[in-house]
Amino acid sequence: MIEMKEVYKTYSNGVLAVNGINISIHPGEFVYVVGPSGAGKSTFIKMMYREEKPTKGSIIINNMNLAEIKERNVPYLRRSIGVVFQDFKLLEKLTVYENIAFALEVIGEQPKNIKKKVLDVLDLVQLKHKARHFPNELSGGEQQRVSIARSIVNNPAVVIADEPTGNLDPDTSWGIMNIFEEINNRGTTLVMATHNKEIVNTMKKRVIAIEEGQIVRDEARGEYGTYD
C-alpha cells in the first residue's frame, strides 16, 4: 500500500529532515509514527499525501509514485487518501453535513449518492444529530470526528492522521481512537503520527520510530519509547 525507497528530504534552508528512509506498509495495517520533536515525523507524514515532495527517492502509494506525479494529478491521488489534522481544518461557514458533502462535491460525486454517503459516515462517528450544526457550535472532539468523517466519506484506501488527538483531553482522545480502530477494522490502512504515549502503549499496533530523519525502530506490536 505504501512503500518508500531511499527517501531523502532536504529543505531550502539546508535542513535534512528525512535521511534515507526505506519502509513498506501493507494494506490494512495500523501504524503509529513516533519520535522526538524535530525528528522528521511531520515531513515523513506530509510526503505521504504530497504536501511535501522528496528531494530524492521514490514513494509509492496505491501504485502511484508521488515523487514523479504531476501537480495536476495530485487531486486524483488525494481521492484515495484521507487526511486528518490536529487542528481539524473545517470550513466555518458550512454545517457539519456541508463540510463532509463538500469533499464529495469537489471530486464530482453524483448528488444522489452524496446524502447517503454523508449520513453513513456521520452515523459511524455518532454525529448524525449534529448534521445541521456549524463547527463553532461543536466541542473539539466533535469537530475532530467531523474531520474524520470528511476524510473517509470517499472510502479512501489510506487514512493519514497527523497528531489527531493533540488538542483533545484523554477521554475524548480515546473516543477518537475507537473510531480509528473501527475504520481500520473495515480494511482501511491507517498511519498516525502521535506524541500520545498512553494510546500507543495500550493499543499495541505497529510502531515506526524516527530520530534525526531516520527510522531507528520498527516493531510489529511496539511501544512509544522515552520521547518527551
TrEMBL record:
Residues 2-227 form the ABC transporter domain. Part of the ABC transporter FtsEX involved in cellular division. Belongs to the ABC transporter superfamily. It comes from Metabacillus arenae. It is a peripheral membrane protein. This is Cell division ATP-binding protein FtsE. PANTHER family: CELL DIVISION ATP-BINDING PROTEIN FTSE (PTHR24220:SF470), IMPORT ATP-BINDING PROTEIN (PTHR24220). Gene3D superfamilies: P-loop containing nucleotide triphosphate hydrolases. GO terms for biological process: cell division. GO terms for molecular function: ATP binding; ATP hydrolysis activity; transmembrane transporter activity. Keywords: ATP-binding, Cell cycle, Cell division, Cell membrane, Membrane, Nucleotide-binding, Transport. InterPro entries: AAA+_ATPase, ABC_transporter-like_ATP-bd, ABC_transporter-like_CS, ABC_transpr_LolD-like, Cell_div_FtsE, P-loop_NTPase. It is found in: Cell membrane. The gene is ftsE. Homodimer. Forms a membrane-associated complex with FtsX. It comes from the Bacteria. One of its GO terms (cellular component) is plasma membrane. The keyword Membrane applies.
